[in-house]
Amino acid sequence: MENNKIEIFSPRFDGERFREHRLPLDLLEDLTALQEMTIEMAKFIYLEQNPDRQRVPKNFTQGISFELESLEPGSTIPKIIMIVGMIGMFPHEKVTFFEKAKERIVNAVQAASTDDDISKHAPESVLYHFNKFGKKLRTDEFIEFNPKGKNKAKFTKDTRRKLILASSKSKEYTEDIKLRGSIFEMDQDKNTFQIQLVDGKKIEAVYTEHTEDILKNAFLKYNDNQRVSIDGIGKFNKNSKLIKINQIDDIALLDETDVGYRLAEISQLKDGWLDGQGSSIDVNFLNWLTDKLESHLNTDIIKTYIYPTVDGNVQIEWSSTQYEVSLMINSINKKGIYQKLNLSTDEDLINEYDLQNDLKWNDLNNELEKIFIS
Amino acid sequence: MKDESFLHRQVHPSFVQGDTISSQVFTSQVFKPTPKDDFQLSVYNGELFEAEESYDHYTEDGKKSSGVVAVTKAECIINELPVKLDNVPFVGHCSIDYSGLTTGEISKKAKKLKVLASVRGWQFQP
Questions:
Q1: Are B51 and B103 spatial neighbours (Cβ–Cβ below 8 Å)?
Q2: Number of CB pairs < 8 Å for A and B?
Q3: Are B43 and B7 spatial neighbours (Cβ–Cβ below 8 Å)?
Q4: What angle in degrees, to the nearest 10, is found between the helix axes of A91-113 and A157-165?
């Protein structure tokens, strides 16, 4: 049997996770969603061009398959090809519908990225498929659907929301979530629980057998301030408000010094938090700091205490019987003033760390491990 | 004022991580003078106020406190921090004087007072 091979999509994934030109398994589902979306679009175009037809021919997708041929560098470019079996009716004509489908999808993404009219490129039935595409994309990541073109068709979390909400069927959308909070209610009859987030919001979720023990543990220790982290998929309304947890991929009990929870608490401070004084702290800075602390410092072992400062910065402190250490981080220039006080000798050492440089975070971690672990 | 007398300091909730003494969470900032203190750290004279009384007095006009910790006058003097019994703005108010110190020196002394207060533990928690 003779087959035709056509490169259908080569989207470029960019962000920290794609620096090594690999594709996390989390995102493989996206490729399936892209295939389904393209088929739906091709069917729509067929019917658009054949207004006398009520439905597409039965063999419309017969002999067609999408395959991941390779991962190209740059950061990561999954090369998706379409294999078209040269059997059945009008194989070449069929290919045209799929090629046009790709073009329309790219144009829809481009329109979303530039706030143009999305609906003139793709119907609701196609846009709805973006619910399954890009769920696990992180805030600092994006996909270019047309990396070699002038219009890159940049797909971000924000673009995704616009595409889904452009479908009138979708007054809601789903997205990857990482939540921290306390379990204040469990219903064993309905297999549901309620989590209270740092900002006080209460969200309901369904639990399964594999998460039940951890949830019960957290629920019973609610009055001891036991907190949990939940990774999964959340459902949001059109105003980007989380309304439900759809899926739990991972749940863990948090230590009281969990840096993510603590920084989320600090993010809730409003101007005047210190009895009328005290500036609120920039949320983007706190998100950045959470990421840096979680990825560079051994905070599981070295107890890390974090406090706001009156001038809108953050001070981190570490203690042992011999040392008191602090790091005051400026939220604007991200420079850290480090002070290590030896309580036995009364000697102190002051250093400055430029924390925009990841290597300095590694230096800091080495320093802290020397003091608090070895 | 006797050297061994306590100087009570209110701890703002944002400067506590964990809410019990056993969690051993105290911060340097508890003792770090804020702009409002003009390098004078406000404390209560322990000879005139019990820790709980100082808490009640501090919070009666809506200011926030998670509880009260304390150092002694002698501990301040050892760390070259003068203590003023100024009785302003109320009788029983004292100030630990950080004026004339560099930022690094303030931070260092604040760390030392924090350790002393942490070892002593909460004097009062509501």
A1: no
A2: 61
A3: yes
A4: 110
Residue B90 CB burial class (10 angstroms; 0-12, 13-18, ≥19): exposed
Sign of torsion over alpha carbons A38, A39, A44, A50: positive
Whole-angstrom distance, CA of residue A234 vs CA of residue A253: 19
Predicted-complex ipTM score? 0.88
Contacts of residue A200, Cβ cutoff 8 Å, sequence gap at least 6: none
* Tens-place pLDDT, residues A280-302: 999 999 999 999 999 999 988 89
CA-wise closest residue to A16 among A273, A227, A288, A243: A288
Taking only the tens place, the pLDDT of each residue in A297-337 is 998 889 999 999 888 999 999 989 999 999 999 999 999 99
pLDDT of residue A347: 96
Is A257 within 8 Å of A210 (Cβ atoms)? no
Contacts of A266 in chain B (CB under 8 A): 14
To which H or E segment does residue B59 belong? helix B51-59
The pLDDT tens digits of the residues spanning A167-183 come to: 866 678 888 898 999 99
Contact A256 B34 (CB under 8 A): no
Integer CA distances (angstroms), A234 to A69, A141, A178, A367, B37, in order: 32, 19, 9, 39, 46
Under a CB-based contact definition with an 8 Å cutoff, are residues A43 and A58 in contact? no
How far apart are the C-alpha atoms of A186 and A212, rounded to whole Å?
10
User: Stretch A332-346: mean pLDDT, rounded?
Assistant: 96
- Can you read off the two tokens belonging to residue A15? 């962000």
Alpha helices in chain A (DSSP H): 28-49, 91-113, 124-127, 157-165, 209-220, 259-267, 283-296, 358-372
A312 and A282 Cβ atoms separated by less than 8 Å: yes
Question: Which sign does the torsion angle of CA A135, A140, A141, A147 carry?
Answer: positive
Partner residues linked to A231 by β-bridges: A178, A250
Nearest Cα of chain B lies from the Cα of A271 at a distance, in angstroms, of 13
pLDDT at res. B35: 52
Detail the DSSP E strand segments found in A149-241.
154-155, 172-187, 192-197, 202-206, 227-237
List the 1-60 stretch of B: residues with Cβ below 8 A of A: 12, 14-15, 17-19, 23-25, 27-29, 34-36
| B85: three-class secondary structure by DSSP | coil
Which chain B residue shows the shortest CA-CA distance from A318? B27
